[in-house]
Amino acid sequence: MTIGEVLERINTEFPEVRASKVRFLEERGLLTPARTAAGYRKYTEVDVDRLRFILALQRDQFLPLKVIKDYLDAIDAGKRPDSLPGGLRLEPRSVSQQLAQELTGHIRPMSRAELQGMSGASDDLMRTLEAYRLIWADETGRYDDHSLKVARAAVTLTGFGFEARHLRPFRIAADRELGMVEQATSGIAQNNGGVSKERVTEAAREITQACLSLHAGVVSAEIADMEE
To answer: Rounded to an integer, what distance in angstroms lies between the CA atom of residue 82 and that of residue 74?
Structure first.
């Protein structure tokens, strides 16, 4: 298949993907299509399955490409790699309904009632999460899987006695982190003329993952000290 034919195959599931994105993944070593004698790329069904796998992990798990590449490299080498963040242990294959459910637990935007039903959030908690902009609906009034993760986490916290006012610092912390990410990626764009949107987005993913790892590491260390 040509790159145009590949896009026709995947754009129903990933309508935002363009040829530049596919070439960027090739530059980063995640895709290695065969080449004709004239140097044109030729993609196979295996390449398309692998592309769907990568795009699904980026979209639904917000994983940096380095994490995905290390995982794929281990599989390519015949190893049994550690699970991906979130406990996922998958291999490239077509992103079927089953895989979508494994990745996200939900395959379409949710109504407010569906979000409440799946998360167990009360009306009061929903109003609080929306007031602090921890969750929000799109222009059609639907919520995505990120909102589901936040709502479920908030329900768990309230079960341990957290009150609505305790949730606001999470929004403040997220805004500070986003500010750092925006500042860093802005610098990347300014210092590297003509840098692609894909490179900036990937940098944002890597910075975010590093921030989350840093936060988790510090908190985990403090909890470990409490156990001693």
So the answer is: 9
